[in-house]
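Subject: Sanity check before I submit

Could someone independently write out the structure tokens for this chain? I want to compare against mine line by line before I put it in a report. The sequence has 366 residues.
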Amino acid sequence: MTSGAAARVADATGNWVDTRAPPWSRPYLRLSRLDRPIGSWLLLMPCWWSAALAAGVIGSIGQLPLIIVLFFIGAFVMRGAGCTWNDITDRDLDALVERTRSRPIPAGQVSVPQAIAFLVIQALIGLAVLLQFNGFAVATGIASLVIVAVYPFMKRITWWPQIVLGLAFSWGALMGFAVTLGRIDVAALALYAGSIAWVVGYDTIYAHQDAEDDALIGIKSTALLFGARTHQALMVFYAAAVVLIGVALALSGARWFAWIGLAAFAAHLVWQIRRLEISDPALCLRIFKSNRDAGLLLFAGLLIGQIRRRQRRSCAVPTKISSVKGDRSLVRTQSLSSSARSRDPLAFAHPTLVVQSRAMISRSPW
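---
Independent answer below. Compare away.
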């Protein structure tokens, strides 16, 4: 295995934070990982998957753009808060690892009290986003904080900290259903489980960057647990991810565009396994980052499927109206009705779900 500083991937290289951000803000932007946003994208993917699937359950994408935007903001803010908390708890360990010793706290750029204050600010912004949703979604979001709080300590006591990370990073798979439906369906649980398997896989790849240092200082990870069997382990976890996400699609009545997205997602995971060389930290980082693209492929399939479904339903209304003959008042009444429906994004949903969905997001000021 390659060793030494020359083989290490720098924790922060030349990026917009280093070159364009005001000097006083740079340590805080690094704390929130805005210099390396890949983690925020990976946190966001299950949120968007879930929102798209839930939109299919109610038969409307009317509120989906708003939910997508709020999830985007929330993911970036709360990932920053989680990383700040992680750096506070891991500051002594970070000082011992080549890749992480340049982080703001071990490097002396930010004090612990300053980091805590910054954490509180980020948490309050995240709460402001969360409060745009219904009460069930708010409670579901707050419940995730328990997992986020304990995660940094797991690498000290178990070889499976990636499981706990998966529980936290996949929470968005539940949030889309909680926001849209006010409940968590079996499909959401299947999506959550599939996302956890995906996270375990890609974070195992990520952990191989630090495998040597982790072994020296007693930090545990699935990268060290699997070792030379990492490729076989990835096959198991990535296969589980594809199967479980497929179950979620089937339970949600997803259309064929969604299945195309899942196939593209699966193909990307196969490519990762074939390309991976665990002795090359730089390659591990590149493959880890590529999981954003895998997640976007799946989301694109889900989103296109929902858009196509809405288009088909919109086209069905004029056909019905044109078949009415003889009674002009009836034609006029149906035309007005169809116009009203076109302005109401929930018009084609089941009446019970219409009432429920409107109530879920009625608190949003947007």
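---
OP: Matches mine. For the report I'm noting this point. The two ends are 53 Å apart (CA to CA).
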